[in-house]
């Protein structure tokens, strides 16, 4: 009996060692797997985990998957709508089959039904499906993906063509140091998809629609800068030559040079401050030359009204170019032009043709919103003047961004002229801090009551050198 037990003991030992070895291998494999998960950043929610496990070919960086899904859903909705429509039509025909037997449906009516109710919806869904763009990997080992941001978000082909980067034809780096030109639209355009597609829906080479108000709506709501368009701008049918420069500064322009279709008024006379239905609220008397002429050149009883001659006397001969940022018809620029100073005037057409008025006076309008970074290089302007546009309604953080941008473009020694800024008395300290935070030199500073609860603030400040 003892001899028979020896082989069983040896076999048991062998099985035990085999189990230990297999258990050790399982532990090693588990540890290896855990280490792989850890090194891939799985436990830290690393975005590169998919790349680690699946490789480049299965992962598409910088690809808008949400837009792709939205576009596919659009196509599916079209197909679902078509199917429901056809099923309802079949059910209705089944209910009225007796009438159909008696009646005669002509081939022309049958053809029209197929074209309008079946072929066109199918074609639309087919085109939408073909326009969906999938990313293409360049090369075998490269991680670059040929895909344009938001390309699948928009349906209108002209939008898609615009935002697609344009490669240099010769395959070399261009003058800007890039291999492609990237046309931009503001990120708010995504939330205004319908309006932007309407704006870009035109026949290439034909006349644009008279839709400047749609364009301005997009700009004011943050879809700025707008895309370029390949259609011809409409002008007034009765356009006349502008007046010569020695007359145009202080003469009311010819109203035939403006397209009035999107305004309440149909001529400059209607824009008088005496007309309660003129269509704009700010800038009282802007379109009346007799009320505009005294501004900045005639003494007033208010300490907040600075005169141009006094401002220029602070920096004799140094103020040559600048920006007037506000609401107006260019009168400040006209007065500065008489002093051989070139002023660009920012303007939006808020209820009246401000841009056309400024240009017809022989001055330079800059079609610009509060949303946009100023299109000037650093340290280049001698003067920034602001009046009418910004007052106590403006958010402090927004004002902070604007003031920092103004500081960027003002040259050392340049002047910031805050003209008749007004706000509630209780908010004055906050706004004073915003204007004084840059430690500009004070040349003029005046506060005056506007009403019981509001005050005016005017200031003339000089940017310090800040040499490093």
UniProtKB/TrEMBL annotation:
<dbReference type="InterPro" id="IPR004159">
    <property type="entry name" value="Put_SAM_MeTrfase"/>
</dbReference>
<keyword id="KW-0489">Methyltransferase</keyword>
<protein>
    <recommendedName>
        <fullName>S-adenosyl-L-methionine-dependent methyltransferase</fullName>
    </recommendedName>
</protein>
<keyword id="KW-0325">Glycoprotein</keyword>
<dbReference type="Pfam" id="PF03141">
    <property type="entry name" value="Methyltransf_29"/>
</dbReference>
<dbReference type="InterPro" id="IPR053223">
    <property type="entry name" value="Prob_Methyltransferase"/>
</dbReference>
<dbReference type="GO" id="GO:0032259">
    <property type="term" value="P:methylation"/>
</dbReference>
<keyword id="KW-1133">Transmembrane helix</keyword>
<dbReference type="GO" id="GO:0016020">
    <property type="term" value="C:membrane"/>
</dbReference>
<keyword id="KW-0175">Coiled coil</keyword>
<feature type="transmembrane region" description="Helical">
    <location>
        <begin position="20"/>
        <end position="38"/>
    </location>
</feature>
<feature type="coiled-coil region">
    <location>
        <begin position="65"/>
        <end position="103"/>
    </location>
</feature>
<keyword id="KW-0812">Transmembrane</keyword>
<dbReference type="GO" id="GO:0012505">
    <property type="term" value="C:endomembrane system"/>
</dbReference>
<keyword id="KW-0472">Membrane</keyword>
<dbReference type="InterPro" id="IPR029063">
    <property type="entry name" value="SAM-dependent_MTases_sf"/>
</dbReference>
<keyword id="KW-0808">Transferase</keyword>
<comment type="similarity">
    <text>Belongs to the methyltransferase superfamily.</text>
</comment>
<keyword id="KW-0735">Signal-anchor</keyword>
<dbReference type="GO" id="GO:0008168">
    <property type="term" value="F:methyltransferase activity"/>
</dbReference>
């Amino acid at each position: 009996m003892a001899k028979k037990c020896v082989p069983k003991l040896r076999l048991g030992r062998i099985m035990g060692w085999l189990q230990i070895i297999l258990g050790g291998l399982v532990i090693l494999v588990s540890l290896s797997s855990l280490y792989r998960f850890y090194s891939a950043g799985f436990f830290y929610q690393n975005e590169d985990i998919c790349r680690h496990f699946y490789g480049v070919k299965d992962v598409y960086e910088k690809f808008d998957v949400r837009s792709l899904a939205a576009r596919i859903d659009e196509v599916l909705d079209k197909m679902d709508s078509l199917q429901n429509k056809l099923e309802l039509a079949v059910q209705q025909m089944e209910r009225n089959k007796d009438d159909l037997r008696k009646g005669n449906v002509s081939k022309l009516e049958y053809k029209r039904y197929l074209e309008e109710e079946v072929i066109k919806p199918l074609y639309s869904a087919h085109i939408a499906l073909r326009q969906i763009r999938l990313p293409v990997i360049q090369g075998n080992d490269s991680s670059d993906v040929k895909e344009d941001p938001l390309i699948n978000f928009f349906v209108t082909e002209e939008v898609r063509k615009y935002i697609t980067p344009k490669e240099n034809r010769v395959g070399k780096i261009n003058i800007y140091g890039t291999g492609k030109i990237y046309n931009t639209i503001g990120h708010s355009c995504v939330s205004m998809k319908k309006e932007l597609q309407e704006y870009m829906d035109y026949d290439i080479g034909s006349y644009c629609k008279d839709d400047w108000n749609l364009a301005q709506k997009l700009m004011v709501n943050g879809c700025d800068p707008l895309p370029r368009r390949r259609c011809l701008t409409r002008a007034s049918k009765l356009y006349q030559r502008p007046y010569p420069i020695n007359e145009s500064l202080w003469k009311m322009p010819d109203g035939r040079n403006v397209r009035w279709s999107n305004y309440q008024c149909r001529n400059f006379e209607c824009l008088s401050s005496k007309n309660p239905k003129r269509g704009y609220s700010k800038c009282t008397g802007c379109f009346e030359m007799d009320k505009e002429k005294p501004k900045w050149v005639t003494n007033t009883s208010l300490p907040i009204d600075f005169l141009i001659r006094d401002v220029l006397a602070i920096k004799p001969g140094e103020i040559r170019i600048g920006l007037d940022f506000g609401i107006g018809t260019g009168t400040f620029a006209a007065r500065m032009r008489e002093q051989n100073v070139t002023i660009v005037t920012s303007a939006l057409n808020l209820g009246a043709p401000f841009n056309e008025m400024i240009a017809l006076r022989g001055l330079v309008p800059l079609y610009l919103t509060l949303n946009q970074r100023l299109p000037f290089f650093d340290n280049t302007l001698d003067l920034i003047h602001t009046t009418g546009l910004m007052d106590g309604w403006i958010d402090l953080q927004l004002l902070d961004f604007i003031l920092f941008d103004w500081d960027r473009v003002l040259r050392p020694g340049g002047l910031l002229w805050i003209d008749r800024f007004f706000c509630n008395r209780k908010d004055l300290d906050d706004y004073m801090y915003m204007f004084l935070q840059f430690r500009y030199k004070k040349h003029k500073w005046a506060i005056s009551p506007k009403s019981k609860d509001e005050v005016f603030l005017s200031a003339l400040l000089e940017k310090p050198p800040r040499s490093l």
